[in-house]
Write a structure and sequence with these properties.
about 500 residues, alpha/beta, five-stranded mixed β-barrel, five-stranded parallel beta sheet, globular, binds flavin-adenine dinucleotide
Length: about 500
Amino acid sequence: MSESNLTCDVLVLGGGPGGYSAAFRAADLGLSVVVVERYATLGGVCLNVGCIPSKALLHVASVMDEARHLAAIGVDFDAPKIDRDKLRAHKDKVIAKLTGGLAAMAKMRKVALLRGVGTFTGPNQLKVEETAGPGQAKTGGVKTVQLKRAIIAAGSQAVRLPFMPQDPRIVDSTGALALAHAPRRMLILGGGIIGLEMGTVYSTLGARLDVVEMLDGLMPGADRDLVRVWQKVNAPRFDRIMLKTKTVAARATDAGIEVTFEGDGAPPPQTYDLVLQAVGRSPNGARIGAQAAGVAVNERGFIAVDAQMRTSAPHIFAIGDIVGQPMLAHKAVHEGHVAAEVIAGELKGDEKLARAAFDARVIPAVAYTDPEVAWVGLTEDQAKAQGIAVKKGLFPWAASGRAIANGRDEGFTKLLFEQASGRIVGGGIVGTHAGDLIGEVALAIEMGADALDIGHTIHPHPTLGESIGLAAEAVHGACTDLPPARKR
Ligand SMILES: Cc1cc2nc3c(=O)[nH]c(=O)nc-3n(C[C@H](O)[C@H](O)[C@H](O)COP(=O)(O)OP(=O)(O)OC[C@H]3O[C@@H](n4cnc5c(N)ncnc54)[C@H](O)[C@@H]3O)c2cc1C
């Protein structure tokens, strides 16, 4: 066993989007930084087994679906031949390009990368059990890092239902992304974004889908009118959408995984070639020796932080999935920047930086399904529940020249303006590329824009983005791309 010591201003535990963003920002602000990451590459869940590989596969699926749609308008391709090995290699190349870029940028910034499993052994000390190879196999080597400040960015992992047998035909999102199976019948356990995105890929590659969800709707968190559009377009992918239904048992058989359901319309036990568990993610707070550093972790493994991302130990910060919902990469990145700035401000005596805080009004959410569903700020359901009176501007894509030209006019753009102030407080979009469009709505909310600001902003024609300006015009009954507003 080899032991040696490193010292640094800031120790970042975990090299995911939160961790590397914090580390790079801290280094840019002149601090010495060590990142401890157990896997071979930076990028965490997002780059290695999350956002990026799923989007690489979703892109392929959407091109395949698009090609199929063209048959109806006179352009017919042969049935696709799928080479899973090549497809996997493509996805891996995308990941390698991005993670390789991060390693290069870490080097440019002189951020030290230490590979291993980190555990706090004191308020200013982290033990690192070194790892090697493609997974997290320990080599026996141990290093100790002495730190002035720390940023915990240790992320989360997929929840596994306790009664699920150990069987290669039962996978989490990481297993699904490995593309090791070509199921004919697939069950998605959990009707959230991750499950539905992976379901989209597998269905386009040839699987028939069932989905089971305990709540009364899919994509919890999004307004139902948005989800209805997605559901109508995607109905052909599914044999069963089981809502208000619990999965209570599973058994591995030669024929497949036999799953038992309980609930109002639960079918008799069903057998699947592949079961994807997508029932949520749990934070890694209980696995990092946080108590040795004086950091409070709750019973679910989350670490509570203040607006500066400071934990119960004043010199230790936490960011990303480990501090709570929404578990999204863009939230982790912003939190990472805040923590790095506060620390740099304190260590370098820069009062302005030391006052940095997470003050974003909204965090957008996107399901990169087909069509995409995106929302930001207050939803209509939340406005109702909170008793906030809102005015709705809605632009149906059936009136959008671009959406019609694309043959995809099923979507709509909806903006919500607070009655009292006139300012935009939320928005939702369902349609192709909704995820790329929602950023403008987030910006409008951050800027405190009203319907005139957005409606008077000239959007290029013909684009899907136009629908945002037109939805704002609709609020005033001034949208000439829609039938005239009814006179009151
Ligand atoms: C299939 C899938 C698709 C997703 N798609 C999207 C998307 O499209 N958009 C989006 O915004 N979000 C998406 N997410 C969520 C996103 O990946 C996470 O929110 C994001 O990665 C969180 O970043 P993080 O830095 O907090 O943690 P993570 O990315 O989880 O990184 C934590 C890192 O810490 C390391 N680590 C943990 N403990 C230790 C330890 N003790 N020692 C050393 N290293 C340790 C881990 O190995 C990991 O690399 C997706 C997630 C999944 C699973």
